[in-house]
Amino acid sequence: MGTETWPRSTLGWLECSACQNVSDVDRPQGTCDRCGGALLARYRLDEAARTLTREVLVERPANLWRYGELLPGTEVALSLGEGYTPLLPALYLGAALEIERLWIKDESLNPTGSLKARGMACAVTMARRYGLRRLALSSSGNDGGAASAYAALAGLGIDVFFPADTPEPFLLEATVFGARVHVGGENIAECGARVRELRQSEGWFDLSTLREPWRLEGNKTLGFEIAEQLDWRLPDVIVYPTGGGTGLIGMWKAFEELGQLGWIDDRRPRMVAVQAEGCAPIVQAWKEGREVAERIVNPRTYASGLRVPATIGDRLILRAIRESNGTALTVTDKEMAAGQLDLARSEGIFAAPEGGATVAAIRELVRRGSIAPGDRVVLVNTGSGLKYPRIPDLRLP
């Protein structure tokens, strides 16, 4: 597609999520100048409400930019057709899990096969708007490919830093799109440190998770869509596989904005963060009642998107879980793999390991009594299983 004409953005200012310092949007910014916290975009909601209505949405294209008033950079928006992925009723899996109303938000149908296309559509759009020429980011897999695709569309240079054990399909994807690919380091945290170390000397802008404010804006459309697809009645529970956490944080921000517009009532879903047993900084902080998470040493899991030992979004993730009366829990790699097979063999979806993790988590929450048979539950499959070369314990012919 490329550049289209979309509704006019009502973007107003940026606000630090930690110290509430306010800054303008006229220059490219990473984190808060005062405290280093993640920046949140704020909109002139009264102005947005003049043109953005439920009735108008019905007539708009079925993609991310349909919510243009509440997104940045719509005057120069880039699009590969991202967003408005299906919310599929999981009748067979729901019956097996003893849940009457279960849906799968299938993000594998986005461009480049994952949720990451949403955030990168907005982030690279804003990079082009600011006149930036070179971008860089640390990536555990899908975000590197998505960033590379949108950078190619925008005509921008991009460097992507992957950990040494990143599955080859992710490296191939970024390389095909023309990215300069760097492989090294034990995990995404080490790759992120390398990006920041070289940022000034190389002259690039850092697109790593929550190191700039715009990826979050693309990811929040996941929440807009779930609300719209359920006729503006939010589910009781949303189960989300959590690495860097921009999807979970973004949905919570989306519900806040929809509430301020008066489109939804005061009820909110219980937000459930799922992590791998071998890399669970958020779950550990949740169990210990802390507001920040400690970095995990030697993170281990075959789910690349969950092998995130630390995230700048820890406070925001934990805040969303607490405010929603949600929870955080771990699953093993074996349980995650079984969840992938459950999705494939009951619903015809070859999910990423992260999607399989949500199935395992729901099974455990049902066992605990934390999800009741009558609850309306949405699980988010964040990407395609086709990019992963193996599923533990699965024997091929």
Q: What do you see in this structure?
A:
- This protein is an alpha/beta fold and 397 residues long.
- Helices cover 38% and strands 17% of the residues.
- The protein is built from 13 helices and 15 strands.
- The protein has helices at residues 45-51, 54-57, 91-97, 116-129, 142-154, 168-176, 188-202, 214-229, 246-261, 281-288, 314-323, 333-347, 353-368; strands at residues 2-3, 11-16, 22-23, 39-43, 78-79, 87-89, 101-106, 134-138, 157-162, 180-183, 205-206, 237-241, 270-276, 327-331, 376-381.
- It has a six-stranded mixed beta sheet, sandwiched between helices. Strands 10-9-8-11 form a four-stranded parallel beta sheet, with helices on both faces.
- A hairpin with a 5-residue loop joins β2 (11-16) and β3 (22-23).
- α5 runs parallel beside α6.
- The longest helix has 16 residues, at 214-229.
- 57% of the residues are buried.
- The model has no long low-confidence stretch (mean pLDDT 96).
